[in-house]
Specification:
By secondary structure, the protein is of the alpha/beta class. The protein is built from 15 helices and 19 strands. It binds [cytidine-5'-phosphate] glycerylphosphoric acid ester.
């Protein structure tokens, strides 16, 4: 009797075709006799929230075809298609890279599911005629936020996480093994292996790492608060400009579509002239966490103040007339609940942050004709309302906010580097420097040395 041939299927965007894609297809083909490759359409990538896809569908199909591994190429255009394709094409094995480990286990009832180890080192592009190169990103710091960032990079085309640096070898290795990336404990080695740097280390180390990265010619995306002194921000931006490099502060709210729309509407006069902004963000933390034990840089304002100050600076500007802080402190002296009050020539504002006191966490923008309200979590802006004197008339706005929302800043960072889009207005250098100045003033008020 003739042996039944083994039919394998895999899917992907295959944008900016690289070694990782090539090796995946090669091993997928080796799993059986007949390989079907599903290439995603632009519309499907939009639906699943993948940003920044550069190559057209035709180019991506052509690049898959050129490998010679695919016996048949189909297009993936809808959610749930994989399930139907498995039956339609009589599939024995579904395979995908291990960066999706566990995500497709639901297909196990219908065929074998094989996760092939992702390719860690993408050293060069495979196809010479490519418009753009894949950017290898290196992460400094290996805490919770670094993990979230890594998840989000999978949904931004054009970047590949190369590895993570942590001077503590054990932490670096643990993180790298978990995410199948390289671990680095030596700075020089780290910088020579990456094109871009994302910094997610404790606040107090940002300045030193940004400086090192710029000196090594790397663009930098740094978690908020980027630095804690105004002069440091100015120095770093100056240094970046001289070298033609980008330094971007990663306040995720600033880059998400809902917040951009909210700012656009607020500034358009929809509620008249803005006179009051109240932003509140509280997040209860265990007393043992770094945020509540780092006596130098911890506390609620350094942790959450960047979010709350963002709409205030965007709507009223950087030139406040007065800035005052009131704080409730814990036993170790760190602020558990802090309110920054600002006075401008034409309005007033408050930024309220809590790690040890819970509050409503809303953003309220009041103007001469009405007000805009965004309930918690307004810092992941997806819905807001405009109210006027006429209580029966409420305008409602919704926007998508996908996943952890870090993909928006990653995508903007990439397009700024590639020069295809100047997203600098979403969070300007001047605004980042002003934020550093506000952090500096806060730490001074608290009697801490910034
Ligand atoms: N891949 C890999 N190593 C890399 C990068 C990607 O093995 N360094 C694999 C991915 O795991 C995937 C394939 O290459 O199996 C295509 O990757 P992408 O084009 O990024 O597509 P992806 O977004 O992973 O789509 O429905 C689509 C699928 O969910 C996979």
């Amino acid at each position: 009797m003739e042996k039944k041939s083994t039919r394998v299927i895999t899917y992907g965007t295959f944008d900016l075709f690289h070694e990782g894609h090539y090796r995946l297809l090669q091993r997928a083909k080796a799993l059986g006799d007949y390989l079907i490759v599903g290439v995603t359409t632009e519309a499907y990538d939009r639906t699943r929230g993948k940003l920044n896809v550069i190559d057209s569908l035709l180019t991506r199909i052509e690049n898959v075809r050129k490998t010679g591994f695919a016996d048949e190429i189909i297009i993936e255009e809808t959610q749930g298609q994989k399930f139907n394709d498995i039956k339609k094409y009589n599939i024995d094995i579904f395979t995908v890279g291990s960066d999706w480990m566990g995500n497709f286990d639901y297909l196990k009832d219908y065929c074998r599911v094989v996760y092939l180890e992702r390719t860690r080192n993408i050293s060069s592009t495979m196809l010479r005629e490519q418009k753009q190169q894949i950017q290898r990103i290196g992460i400094i710091g290996t805490g919770r936020i670094a993990g979230r960032f890594l998840m989000e990079t999978k949904l931004v085309s054009g970047v590949s996480v190369q590895g993570a640096y942590n001077p503590h070898g054990e932490s670096a290795r643990k993180f790298a093994d978990r995410w199948e990336i390289e671990a680095y404990t030596e700075m020089e080695e780290f910088f020579s292996a990456v094109d871009l740097v994302y910094i997610a280390s404790p606040h107090g180390t940002h300045y030193g790492y940004i400086k090192e990265a710029l000196e090594h010619g790397k663009h930098v995306l740094c978690e908020k608060p980027m630095v804690l002194r105004r002069a440091q921000a100015e120095e770093l931006f100056g240094c970046a400009r001289e070298r033609g490099l980008i330094v971007l502060e990663g306040i995720k709210t600033a880059y998400c579509p809902g917040f951009s729309r909210l700012m656009g509407i607020a500034c358009s006069g929809a509620i008249g002239s803005i006179r009051n902004v109240e932003a509140c963000f509280t997040k209860l933390e265990d007393s043992g966490t770094r945020e509540l034990t780092d006596l130098r840089y911890g506390g609620s304002f350094t942790e959450l103040g960047s979010y709350c100050m963002l709409p205030i600076l965007k709507l009223f500007g950087k030139n406040y007339e007065e800035l005052r802080f009131d704080a409730v402190r814990g036993e170790n002296g760190l602020d558990l609940f802090t309110r920054a009050s600002l006075r401008y020539s034409n309005g007033i504002a408050t930024a309220t942050c809590g790690l040890g006191v819970k509050s409503d966490g809303r953003l309220l923008i009041s103007g001469t004709k009405g007000y805009i309200v965004v309930e918690a979590p307004w810092w992941k802006t997806s819905y807001f309302e405009i109210h006027t004197e006429d209580s029966g008339q409420v305008e409602k706005y919704s926007e998508r906010f996908l996943g952890e929302g870090l993909r928006y800043e990653i995508s903007d960072f990439l397009s700024m580097i590639n020069g295809s889009n100047d997203n600098g207005f979403k969070l300007t250098r001047g605004e980042s420097a002003a934020l550093a100045g506000i952090m500096e003033k806060f730490l001074e008020t608290e009697g801490r040395k910034p």
